[in-house]
Amino acid sequence: EGTIGPLQCQWMTAGSGIIHQEMPKASPRMLGCQLWVNIPAKDKMTHPAYRDITEEDVPLLEEDAATVRVLSGKYNGVSGAFDGGTLQIRYLDIDLNPHSEWVYNQTPDDHTLFLYLLEGTLITNGLEEEEQKGCALLMGTDGKQEQPDQDNQAVAVRSGAEGARFILLSGKPLNEPISWGGPIVMNTREELDLAFRELDNGTFIKHQ
Fold it and tell me: Which stretches within the chain are classed as H helix?
């Protein structure tokens, strides 16, 4: 059983099968992110795992105009609270001061990168349009942005009058098929059908 509070998170690896229940409590305000990351086919049936990550577990870097929390991967030589296992994704939580710029130039060449804006507004890479909260920004594939005349390795953002809170994620594309049904993600329809049959007959959980 795990409990998530302010500035906390949990990392769950479904692997060969895990059953969980989400029970959020009523609150005047609740803001959170749930990210599903596909496991490579060769590791799909790994042992399931669960871990609570407290606020104290997450490295916090105070920069000139931003506060950066490193959840997974590395940033400026600092390792995150979780290494991502076989996934090796980079997951940052950034608070940017009002009317401030933040530049990120650490995207590996073989990674796709995207931003998700939680609060405030952002202008990305010098473009004129201001992005609003709830917006996902795909910055390109293979670590290369799709904007002309831009540094392929750099992402530059500028906040508006309210500042900005956003997450940055990057990871290596698997280039594998995905078959998704409800809470289960596999690589083929046959694997998905088998998983649901096992769920029905009580053999879904392989490791106790």
Answer: 189-201
pLDDT tens column, 22-66: 777 777 877 788 888 888 888 888 888 888 888 999 999 999 999
pTM of the model: 0.81
Whether 38 is covered by a domain: the verdict is no
Torsion sign (Cα): 190, 196, 198, 200: negative
Residue 41 lies in a domain: no
Q: Which two tokens stand for residue 78?
A: 């600092």
Which is nearest to 132 in space by CA: 103, 99, 159? 159
Q: Which residues make Cβ contacts (< 8 Å) with residue 149, sequence separation at least 6?
A: none
pLDDT of 156 higher than 50: yes
Q: How many domains does the chain have?
A: 1
CA atoms within 13 A on the CB side of 16: 9
73-98 residues labelled b (16+ CB within 10 A) or e (exposed): bebeeeebbbebbebebbbbbbbbee
If you ran DSSP here, which 8-state letter would residue 172 be given?
Answer: -
* pLDDT, tens digit, 9 for 90 and up, residues 158-178: 999 999 999 999 988 889 998
Determine, yes or no, domain membership for 117.
yes
DSSP-based three-state secondary structure for 2: coil
Please report the pLDDT score of residue 208 as a whole number.
64
